[in-house]
Amino acid sequence: MSGGGGPAGALASLDRRVIACRACPRLVRHREEVARIRRRAFQGETYWGRPVPGFGAADARLLIVGLAPAAHGANRTGRMFTGDRSGDFLYAALHRAGLANRPASVARDDGLVLRGCRVSAVVRCAPPGNKPLPAERDRCLGFLAEEIARMPRLRVILCLGGYALDGVLRALRGAGLALPVPRPRFAHGAVHPLGDGGPVLVCSYHPSQQNTFTGRLTPAMLDRALGRALARMDG
Length: 235
Known about the structure:
Elements: H1 6-20, H2 25-37, E1 55-56, E2 62-66, H3 74-77, H4 85-96, E3 117-121, H5 134-149, E4 156-160, H6 162-174, E5 191-193, E6 200-204, H7 209-213, H8 219-232
């Protein structure tokens, strides 16, 4: 399972397959159209316009999972949660927690380094209206399941939103992990130990503009959720 170069080499191989994927015609059309038209503020930039791989090392003990790349964020920059307000909010929190060497993520070559964590998503292409179809999600789940399997030190998954929790549970079940009954439910700050060798799941509201601008998710709330994840990383 580990492939050449151990877990890091296997994860790099997975990332290359993610980037090359064209399995969902609707998502391919959308991501490439966005990259061609571009937002006015970014007319001088060349958009990534491809599926976005995870960001962080294979030996990370914490995996942070969101919904999907933003059309003018990760779909533009090529790195998860990079180049938009959601990413500003998330990486500032990671920096406060000691998980990132700087508080902002603006481009793939900005020098940002994560410490002990990796950032990913359930769906790897920017979807129209930020709403992937169920079939698109299901085609992408194999990537997430493999990503989890290729992180040998993984202890905790922080799920950003109910969609992320559902996707993580589907990926784990597809990889053969027996899930607890009743099925874990989303609530901000909830902690779900899966047992049987599985990771601990911690839940947080997604750092979307809608959530952060309205105060549904505050920096202190995300800090507390990250604190709960960090407290379980050595378990």
